[in-house]
Here is the input.
Amino acid sequence: MGLLQNTEPGRRMRMTKLGLETFFNPKSVAVIGASKTPGKLGYNAVQNLLNIGFKGKIYPVNPKGGEVLGIKIYPNVKDIPEPVDVGQILVPAPFVVDIMKDLAEKGVKYVVIITGGFTEAGEDGAKMEGEIMRIAKKAGMRVIGPNTTGILSAPASFSTTFLNFDNMRVGGASYIAQTGNFASITLLWILTKEHYGLCRVIGLGNKCDVDDADALEFLGEDPKTKVVGIYVEGLKNGRRFIEVAKKAAKKKPVLVLKSGRTKAGARAAASHTASLAADDAIIESALRQAGVIRVKHYIDLVNYAKAFIYQPPPKGNRMGVITPSGGLGVVMADTIESSGLSIKPFSGETLKKLEEITPPLIKVGNPFDIWPAVSAIGNVKSFDEGLKAIIADPEIDGVILGIMQNKGVDELKDIDFIIETAKKYPDKPIVSFATGEYQLVEKLRKALETNPEVRIPLYYYAEQACEVMSVMYEYTERRKAIA
Amino acid sequence: MGLLQNTEPGRRMRMTKLGLETFFNPKSVAVIGASKTPGKLGYNAVQNLLNIGFKGKIYPVNPKGGEVLGIKIYPNVKDIPEPVDVGQILVPAPFVVDIMKDLAEKGVKYVVIITGGFTEAGEDGAKMEGEIMRIAKKAGMRVIGPNTTGILSAPASFSTTFLNFDNMRVGGASYIAQTGNFASITLLWILTKEHYGLCRVIGLGNKCDVDDADALEFLGEDPKTKVVGIYVEGLKNGRRFIEVAKKAAKKKPVLVLKSGRTKAGARAAASHTASLAADDAIIESALRQAGVIRVKHYIDLVNYAKAFIYQPPPKGNRMGVITPSGGLGVVMADTIESSGLSIKPFSGETLKKLEEITPPLIKVGNPFDIWPAVSAIGNVKSFDEGLKAIIADPEIDGVILGIMQNKGVDELKDIDFIIETAKKYPDKPIVSFATGEYQLVEKLRKALETNPEVRIPLYYYAEQACEVMSVMYEYTERRKAIA
Here is the structure.
């Protein structure tokens, strides 16, 4: 305790800071700024905790008192008779400093400040943020925010976000976002469009205390986190971030979307979270050396995470491709060759097996155009034999599986045989795509992505499946380089 | 062999060939290889014509006779008592030459050969294809195929495809695909996932007669076609294609996905449709000069067409951006600046209007982060005032409109006010994206994309909306260059 009260700045101080674990596994939370009125953020926050099934104690706090959703509201956090792990602050900016003092007195060590209107809003705000930090340092508190939607910890059924969501799916995907809305948009999208589950989400906001490096350090060590996505505008302490990233990247894939690449982007970043622009080339090279994978589009964080959660990264870059259309096969060959993967002709034995299911006179190759086989012997037999032949080829490190979903002629309904084959080659990833009739594609996606034994990611277009595989291979290579 | 060399013998011959119009507006069609058995291609082909409401006469043909779906089957096309506009051939390859002779005798001038097993299958097939062409030339017939799913003409409720589809939406999007499955996958995807309608689809197959240039020439002149997408592997007559493309691009946007860029792609193309690889850089430059827009991904053909159908291209490159998250604003600023568009600070007057709806102390800029306004005064008022202010700015040529769709706090349900504003600025395109809760995003997409007055395209991620706008601007520039 004595050490934590020490205000001496510097490295030693950092070493003595509390870890972030309790933020993600609290036994109790005080919602400061709770509201009785449905639709208000302070109401939603309490409702969310109930909706997602938080097992710890919820202590709503509001000077007006009363009840929210059947839970007693305390006028002040100091009135709560039990200890409080996490304090979540929703009150307007001018009240936050006093709330921080109350929390310090109460001995609350973990605080999430949702409220905005601090450094990002100008001088007065910056002054208040400084005061908040002084209180926190003195009391040895850790602070996430301000100006964020806060955190989510799916395994603990805990969240500070004020955005409503009814469904929670626990899984291995964690991510860090500088900005709260970015974090919440992404989590909602994953929960409502994808089939994989979430682990931790950290919206850092102004990073008055907990920053990207702290968050990544926690996620790197977190055994429940299987893949980390990060959206970052500026790095306050680039060197430490790179150190932490290198450590994390040894253990799991770390995907980074770094914005502010251009002048316009840097200008927008400065006004958004007061981030300083850094030379993008320097950051790029530092991230590469750290073994981190840089992604180009926001949505890639969502799409790539899925593949890493469902499938192992390929041990090599030699791809076997099944295509439902010769044209898409050509498109995929282009994408594969220009993205660091390799697509070579199949071995004689594999070709022989593929020829056996293909009508006479039709040439087979890699990509394997499966349509002639499908039209001759049906889709189940074609895909079964085709996949078995290709994945068994010792010169193949992974399979990109393209499927056409059309009513009648070639809808693939049964996928058990794909899973059976996939199970036999646990080291060879399968990444799939399907196109055709959307509703049938969605059915197939659900079947492949929610199978209890092996989950195969499905994308909507051919090039994306190839790009995802190339990113998985990049991870294999990066890991070797930093090993 | 140089790509741009004219290898077509008898240019004058071409001039006397029949145009393609009748393929897309036939009064009657003979389905040769029709079948009584549900599920067979020859059954599906007839069923499709009935399903989509073809108004012309359908003559199923099969030596076995009988009936299919209540329609009499003729043993031979020559037995049909009335004239036949289009002959559609589904019988196995060895029978096709004889069928061609029958069609020639019957005086059928337009033939679509679905059957595969010709040049793409080897020497014997190539010989048969040569024979087919001799018959066709002698009789002055035009042939699409072989080895394709054929054509679709939505305005005529006509299709030769054997893939089942129940719904047909007529619209302005036409496209050409070298490969039949590519064409059909795309049309099914558009019909089941998008809200815009189709005009003509041409799956060229082996191009024994009708090739990319013929098809593009037709679509360029076709008043019902508003935008043309092309998937091409190889060009038999590059010079003619470029000439035709230039003419078409003056009238409407022409989007080209050219594959076979890499060695692996070229190898796949050769075995797919016997296409010769050409130097990709030469093609790229020729296409640029022709005013054509080259796209990178298969799905871009679908996504970009939508924007061109719904919105005018921007007259200049100055973008106004509304973002639901500061982070996405930075990401968009990056994308905009690196894609030929420009994002500059707003004029004083615009800033003043945006400040009026934004809580005090929060800086406003371009991108305009709308979240503070939404949380203060609600989403309808924020988006209404925000959009009005930005689109009215004389220094802005187009608006990228980002929306967060979350239950409760900021779901945008009513979009009439957006349409009212859009109507007042018919020269300034609006391209939108939304993220958050998928089902709400889809509801919003439907509302915006199916509005009877102004249709605003909605994409699922921020960078895509920016990329689409940049492609629309590229079209503006290309058109100026070839004018």
User: Anything to note?
Assistant: Residues 1-14 of chain B have pLDDT under 50 and may be disordered. Chain B is about 45% helix and 15% strand.
